[in-house]
Structures are given as structure tokens and as C-alpha cells.
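User: hey, got a sec? need Regulator of free ubiquitin chains 1 folded
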Amino acid sequence: MKSRTGASSEAADRPRLISRSIAELSAIANEYDFDPALRLRYWIRSASTLERQARIYDDEKVYDEAYILYMRYAQLVLNSLHTHPEARRIPEKVLLVKLTKVSVKR
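Assistant: Yep! Here you go:
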């Protein structure tokens, strides 16, 4: 049986070894450009997608990819989105607060 990433279920049961250092993974996570000219709702949707994809990788024990996406999500939500010009509007503020309250399932 194949998992969501295409790996067999036997392979999905074993954690994939992290072949890169935390510094390398963090550098990869920083490789995106935040453009405040794009509508905030697109950035919010991107953040939600990053978090959802990170959970999938985490569930499938692909920890290096999960780390990259979780880091990118955290940096986007905690460091960038609140600086967006549209972040001052009430509906967007509510969405940003929801993004910062992501629950960790375990």
C-alpha cells in the first residue's frame, strides 16, 4: 500500500533518517520571499497549506521535510504576516490569531 507521498506502507512505518544538519534545514526553510504586495489572504492560505503539508510529512515520518515546512510556517506567521499592510484590518487580524494558535496533535 502506498502512502500519501508515494512510499510503501512498510517504508512509511520507519522514520526516514535526516541526512542534513539543522543549520542546512533552517537555511532551506528561509528560502522564500515575503512580498507584501500580494494580498494577505493568499499568504494566509499559503501558511495553512504549509502547516497541512508539514503534518503529512510528520505523520509519514519524513522529519526533515516536516521540519522545513514547520519552520517556514512559523517564520511566515510569527515574523512576516503581521507586517503586511492588510494585517490591520479586523477580519485579517482574526485569521492571523487563528494561525498562531495551531494545535499540535500527538
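Quick note: Helices lie at 9-13, 22-29, 40-59, 63-80, 90-100. Let me know if you need anything else on Regulator of free ubiquitin chains 1.
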